């Protein structure tokens, strides 16, 4: 809508017609403006001022809003026209006049698009970029579905101007998701029109002269869903339930802080985790690990831990520490994976034990011994008892070693040959004997 | 290798040695990722099954490698990486027996896969178990991975 400047008496500062805000309904007939309804004008003014401030900020990035910006926005009702309560608002001429006008145009366009059902799809879009860029991508299915659902309501509301576009390019809000979220955060925006009765409405005029009504239907079918969606977006993610229990975790020791009795471990399954200890001997163990000559020392920490959704959050108190030296060998990752398995890891048994570091070290020795003789990679499997099962498979033969979880592990070296059907088995607690039996079996 | 099998329940029946495939689901802790083959333990018993590892009969109504795996994905704690199979004849050759228990009352957890059967490892010595499961593994590898949707890559041995 076009507004004209009006020059007042010399004693008054010049003022400019700024906007029209019309209240419709029986209460407002014959230009009557009940005091109760002034709150709607105040809300409208607040939204306009916010939009103007946003326009100013856009032109002055990084600068603080001038202190007198709000006081300069001195709107006044200069006339209440007959037929309904149409308030003609004027603003004083101001250095910020350009931004006040830009803000007003934005607000009028905002309500035009809301009434036309274009705002909600913009909030449904995961892309937070400018809507013009969003449109280039064609929009997502959810947003399109909302537009479709809105078609009926559009006819019912009969509100905004002609925003129709070809059906293969559904109309979208010209406001970005962030802009809409920001407006929706304003109490004045949320409550605009809330004091009106079911048969009353507020009406504003868009920059291109279209009338936009904010009535009961628009509030319930357009603004309410928008606010619900905003609430959904802003709702904090529910925090996972924390559990505190004793368990074990394996990983590489990253740092040690004796002053705070704390350390950090980089784990395979849970990322980097911090931990604390109380006992002095734990410090000695941790220090020994850091000073060890191993290329890549892996530790298993046993103690009280804080878990959320099966993810380790913190080691509350380390009570035991084990060291596993894992060099950069082809099977190192398998060894670390097995070392990282928590108690109850098996799909078949919730009481399955963590894998013994002694068994893992023995497995590593056997793998090193067998490697030069083999082209195929062995399977390295955890056993429910906490032991390790190594296996070499070729089409006619299966050779395996089961290593028990004991401190002095027992080795069962087993070979099965399919044709002619035969098998051989050696049981020993001597790793040298086990190695010899394995090498013989592998041929 | 000979041994005595325990007496079956009245609701159980031994499968005849035939070409019928018995499907077995392979999970990640029994899978050699490098060589793309299962562990022999995948075909043997664990403590929890009491010497009766579960298989599914291909002859049962509506049971295919795909439906068998689908049921596992929906009901088991750990997803299946793929389906491998042995025949009831191969089970028999390994001095084992396969038993259909689909007509028995449901187990305590209240669910059982369609076409359920088990391979009977009860009363075997540890060495006999190792022999038998290794034999079944080699039979399954010779047959190769059975194709299902989203399954792991095929194996080369």
Characterise this structure.
The complex is a heterodimer of chains A (443) and B (157). By secondary structure, chain A is α+β, with helices and mostly antiparallel strands. Helix content of chain A is 35%, strand content 28%. Chain A contains 13 helices and 16 strands. Chain A has helices at 38-59, 69-72, 97-115, 119-124, 131-136, 141-157, 177-184, 187-191, 216-234, 280-291, 332-340, 357-370, 431-442; strands spanning 5-6, 15-24, 76-81, 85-92, 201-205, 211-215, 242-257, 262-267, 271-277, 297-308, 311-325, 379-382, 388-394, 397-403, 411-417, 422-428. In chain A, strands 1, 2, 3, 4, 5 and 6 form a six-stranded antiparallel sheet that branches. In chain A, strands 7-8-9-11-10 form a five-stranded mixed beta barrel. In chain A, strands 12-13-14-15-16 form a five-stranded antiparallel sheet. In chain A, a hairpin with a 5-residue loop joins strand 5 (201-205) and strand 6. The longest helix of chain A has 22 residues, at 38-59. Chain A starts with a strand and ends with a helix. Residues 126-167 of chain A have low confidence and may be disordered. Chain B has helices spanning 65-75, 88-93, 126-143, and strands at residues 13-14, 21-26, 31-32, 37-38, 54-57, 82-87, 98-100, 116-119. In chain B, 22% of the residues lie in helices and 18% in strands. Chain B has one domain. Chain B is built from three helices and eight strands. Chain B is globular and about 40 Å long. A six-stranded antiparallel sheet of chain B has the order 1-7-8-5-2-6. With 157 residues, chain B is α+β, with helices and mostly antiparallel strands. Chains A and B meet through strand 12, strand 13, strand 14 and strand 15 of A and strand 3 and helix 3 of B.
């Amino acid at each position: 809508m076009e507004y004209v400047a009006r020059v007042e008496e010399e004693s008054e500062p010049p003022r400019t017609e700024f906007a029209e805000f019309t209240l419709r309904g029986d209460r407002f007939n014959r230009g009557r403006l009940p005091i109760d309804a002034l709150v709607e004008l105040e809300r409208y003014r607040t939204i306009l001022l916010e939009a103007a401030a946003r326009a100013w900020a856009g032109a002055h990035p990084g600068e603080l809003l001038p202190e007198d910006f709000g006081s300069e926005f001195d709107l006044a009702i200069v006339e209440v026209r007959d037929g309904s309560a149409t308030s003609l608002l004027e603003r004083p001429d101001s250095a910020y006049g350009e931004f006040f006008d830009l803000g007003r145009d934005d607000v009028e366009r905002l309500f035009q698009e809301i009434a036309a059902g274009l705002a909600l799809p913009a909030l449904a879009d995961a892309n937070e970029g400018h809507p013009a860029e969003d449109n280039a991508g064609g929009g997502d299915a959810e947003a399109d579905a909302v537009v479709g659902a809105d078609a009926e309501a559009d006819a019912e509301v009969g509100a905004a101007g002609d925003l129709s576009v070809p059906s293969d390019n559904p109309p979208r809000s010209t406001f970005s998701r962030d802009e809409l979220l920001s407006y929706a955060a304003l109490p004045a925006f949320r409550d605009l029109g809330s004091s009106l009765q079911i048969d009353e409405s507020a009406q504003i005029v868009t920059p291109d002269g279209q009338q936009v009504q904010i009535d009961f239907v628009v509030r319930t079918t357009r603004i309410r869903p928008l606010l619900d969606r905003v609430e959904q977006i802003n709702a904090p993610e529910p925090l996972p339930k924390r559990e505190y229990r004793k368990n074990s975790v394996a990983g590489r020791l990253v740092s040690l802080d004796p002053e705070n009795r704390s350390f950090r471990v980089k784990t395979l399954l849970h990322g980097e985790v911090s931990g604390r200890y109380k006992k002095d001997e734990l410090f000695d163990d941790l220090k020994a690990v850091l000073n060890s000559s191993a290329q890549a020392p892996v530790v298993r920490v046993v103690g009280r831990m804080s878990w959320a959704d099966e993810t380790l959050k913190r080691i509350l108190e380390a009570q035991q520490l084990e060291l596993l030296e894992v060099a950069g060998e082809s099977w190192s990752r398998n060894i670390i994976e097995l070392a990282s398995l928590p108690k109850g890891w098996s799909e078949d048994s919730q009481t399955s034990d963590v894998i013994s570091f002694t068994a893992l070290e023995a497995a590593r020795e056997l793998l090193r011994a067998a490697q030069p003789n083999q082209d195929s990679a062995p399977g390295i499997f955890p056993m429910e008892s906490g032991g390790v099962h190594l296996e070499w498979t070729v089409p006619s033969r299966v050779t395996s070693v089961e290593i028990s979880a004991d401190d002095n592990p027992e080795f069962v070296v087993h070979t099965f040959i399919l044709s002619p059907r035969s098998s051989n088995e050696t049981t020993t607690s001597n790793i040298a004997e086990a190695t010899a039996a394995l090498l013989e079996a592998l041929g | 290798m000979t041994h005595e099998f325990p007496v079956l329940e009245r609701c159980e029946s031994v499968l005849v040695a035939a070409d019928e495939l018995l499907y077995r689901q392979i999970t990640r802790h029994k899978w050699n990722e490098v060589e793309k083959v299962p562990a022999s333990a995948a075909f043997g018993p664990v403590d929890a099954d009491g010497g009766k590892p579960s298989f599914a009969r291909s002859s049962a109504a509506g049971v295919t490698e795909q439906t068998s795996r689908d049921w596992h994905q929906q009901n088991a704690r750990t997803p299946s990486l793929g389906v491998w199979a042995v025949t009831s004849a191969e089970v028999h050759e390994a001095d084992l027996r396969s038993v259909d228990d689909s007509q028995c009352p449901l187990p305590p957890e209240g669910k059982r896969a369609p076409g359920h059967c088990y391979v009977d490892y009860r009363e075997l010595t540890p060495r006999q178990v190792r022999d038998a499961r290794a034999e079944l593994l080699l039979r399954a590898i010779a047959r190769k991975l059975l194709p299902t949707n989203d399954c792991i890559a095929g194996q080369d041995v």
